[in-house]
Design a protein that fits this description.
129 residues, alpha+beta, 5-stranded antiparallel beta sheet, two-stranded antiparallel ribbon, 3 helices, 7 strands, 19% helix, globular
């Protein structure tokens, strides 16, 4: 799955549209320690959108085989009335981008609510369309 997401990054220049989100930049980010200057590479695959929203995929664990993929989603809003919304409702559109557009999982679903289901094609989780 991480290899596929790297391919998506390579094929997605700034301005690429994912649902209602426009890509500002995407990379395999690294961290430079401000104290000793050491660089930790391959810290995660990051998609940053023009509205400030971010999606990050990170391997969890000590190796790449059998590791868990952690997915982080951030979406900015200045609408204070949305701050108490259920996270699944508030983040529904960006979750769909993450699971369908970036993870390549397209699993039909008859329900209107967002649910995560197992993809029959690549055995990863996918959001219902």
């Amino acid at each position: 799955m991480m290899s596929h997401i790297r391919e998506v990054i390579a094929a997605s220049p700034p301005g690429t549209k994912f649902g209602n989100f426009e890509l500002a930049m995407a990379d395999d980010f690294e961290y430079t320690d401000p104290i000793d200057g050491s660089v930790a590479k391959k810290q995660g695959l990051r998609f940053v959108f023009t509205d400030g929203s971010r999606i990050i995929f990170r391997l969890s664990g000590t190796g790449s085989a059998g590791a868990t993929i952690r997915m982080y989603i951030e979406q900015y809003t200045d609408d204070k009335s949305r701050l108490k919304e259920d996270a699944q409702v508030a983040l529904k559109d960006i979750i769909k981008v993450m699971m369908i557009d970036l993870c390549c999982c397209r699993v039909p679903c008859s329900t209107q609510s967002l649910q995560l289901v197992m993809c029959r094609h690549c055995a990863s989780l996918a959001a219902c369309q």
